[in-house]
Amino acid sequence: MDNKVYFNQSNLIKIDEKVINDLKKKAMENKDGKFRLCLQHSSQDSLHEMFIVRPKGDYGRPDKHLYTTESHTIVDGAMLVIIFGEDGQIREVFELSKEHYHTYRIDTNTYHMQIPLTEQVVYYEVKLGPFTDKSNIFPEWAPDLQDTEKVTAYMKELDIKLRNFRGNLAEKELVK
Amino acid sequence: LCDFIIKLIEVDCLNKVLHLGQPDNVTLREILCYLKKEFNSESEIKEGNSFNKRYFTLPIHDAEQEGYTGRGIFVILDELINCQKQREPQKKVLFNYSTICKIGDHEIEHLKSEARCLKAGDIKYCLHENITDKVHEMINIYTQYSWIRPHYHPEKIETKIILEGKLLVLIFDEDGNIIEHFIMSNEGDGSKIVHLQPKVIHTNIPLTDVVFLEVTSGPFVAEKDNIYIESLPQKVCKEEVEKYVNNLYG
User: Fold this and answer.
1) HEC string of chain A?
2) Which residues in chain A touch residue B157, judged by CB atoms under 8 angstroms apart?
3) Chain-chain contact of B68 with A92 (C-beta, under 8 angstroms)
4) Inter-chain contact A104–B159, Cβ cutoff 8 Å?
5) CA distance B68 to A6
6) Between A117 and which of A44, A61, A78, B152 could a Cys-Cys bridge form, CB atoms 3.0 to 4.6 Å apart?
7) What is the dihedral of CA B193, B227, A10, B203, to 10 degrees?
8) ipTM of this predicted complex?
9) Mean pLDDT, residues B138-163
């Protein structure tokens, strides 16, 4: 079994603080700091529910899905959610945490990205299965994880775009 | 009619879903025809059925919001109208029609204030657009000691994430005997999330007023998806539920 992904085989699962801490520990034991607990029994199930642990600094390439909505609910920590237009321009930004939005759902065909804001973030993800190589559509304007130089450059560029986007929002608030 | 509707649009602050009472001399369809014209919507008015309640929807495209172009929709639930007319306890079911639906404390407070207007005080806010969707995600607001008849789902899973309050979860065997019970709470040692595979007989009792996210697969077919346990009662008043809980923990 992959030590980064675990599929549930129980009829009843209860997740409390201790389980969440165990998931975070398991993630830290992995080289990339990630761990995924799947509530579905296999990747072929029709509904996919996952608890995902990601570390700060982790790059999750923006993607969209043609056949499924996607939702995330915060379990521990905080992350930034960015919604993009087809051209890679930022359309919406918000924080998912206990203090801000707790859960959100996006429609099909919507480019999105999550950036961990805390040392570790744990969130619950729901989307339709089964998972295939056509499940995630990646845009050309965001580099692949393996291309580390381009990823660094893209994240710097994104940081500037985020500042501008927030600045524009703040100006709109002032105008009001 | 014009003033009436515009006023209602202004009070719509939760994902562009409107809930209207029916004016005495105007039909629901007439209201939607007016909105369709007002917003230049090319979509058809659709009539649907959810939880055995009739509703009408009208997608309105290109409703420009700050930062993105989303799409809105208006929904009128017969259920609410009946509720207003009869002043009977009702569970209100609302649907989201935004491309991006976000729920935080502000939205929860809005739903809770709507719930307070209902005698029964229970609300189900669906993040999915309609009952035919394949993924069903709902924010449930239940008042303390509400009773839901123990049941199971033959083919569907169910996941609950507690957002506010304390929820007692009971698991039964086929004869209706409790085989497990535990408390969900997003504070302290309680379970924050519970996942049930198909055929697990269960119910949940709010020990306080509660808010929780519920996830299952769709589409929803009431008579097929929820199988109730005949030996356990359909309706129980709040006082009896409270006694039941006290006995369980006594």
Assistant:
1) CCCCEEECCCCEEEECHHHHHHHHHHHHHCCCCCEEEECCCCCCCCEEEEEEEEECCCCCCCEECCCCCEEEEEEECCEEEEEECCCCCEEEEEEECCCCEEEEEECCCCEEEEEECCCEEEEEEEEECCCCCCCCECCCCCCCCCCHHHHHHHHHHHHHHHHHHHHHHHHHHHHC
2) 39-40, 47, 49
3) yes
4) no
5) 37
6) A78
7) 40
8) 0.89
9) 93
Measuring CA to CA, how many Å separate B116 from each of A2, B111, B119, B180? 48, 9, 7, 32
Flag if B134 and A128 touch (Cβ within 8 Å): yes
What does the alpha-carbon distance between residue B148 and residue A58 come to, in Å, rounded to a whole number?
Answer: 43
* pLDDT tens profile B110-142: 888 888 777 677 888 999 887 888 999 999 999
The closest CB to that of B192, out of A10, A16, A103, belongs to A16
Answer yes or no: are the C-beta atoms of A77 and A120 closer than 8 Å.
yes
Q: Bridge-partner residues for B26, per DSSP?
A: none
Walk across the sheet containing B68-77 and list its strands.
B46-50, B53-65, B68-77
Question: β-strands B135-142, B210-217: how paired?
Answer: antiparallel
CA distance B154 to B201: 10
- Look at chain A and count its residues: 176
Rounded to whole angstroms, the Cα distance separating B247 from A137 reads 54
Least CB-CB distance to A103: which of B103, B190, B195? B103
CA distance B83 to chain A (A): 29
Q: pLDDT tens digits for A26-56?
A: 999 999 999 999 988 877 788 999 999 999 9
CA–CA separation, B151 vs B199, rounded Å?
9
For position B76, what pLDDT does the model report? 43
> Do A106 and B137 make contact, defined as CB atoms within 8 angstroms?
no
- Tokens found for residue B110: 């809005």
Q: Touching check for B155 and chain A: CB below 8 Å?
A: no
Return the H-helix or E-strand segment holding B94: strand B91-95
Kindly list the residues from chain A whose CB atom is less than 8 angstroms away from the CB atom of residue B136.
Answer: none
Give the minimum alpha-carbon distance from A147 to chain B in angstroms, rounded to a whole number: 30
Are A44 and A16 within 8 A, CB to CB? no
Of B89, B59, B96, B93, which Cα lies nearest the Cα of B77? Answer: B93
| 99-128 in chain B: CB under 8 A from chain A | 99-105, 108, 127-128
Q: Read off the tokens for A84.
A: 């993009």
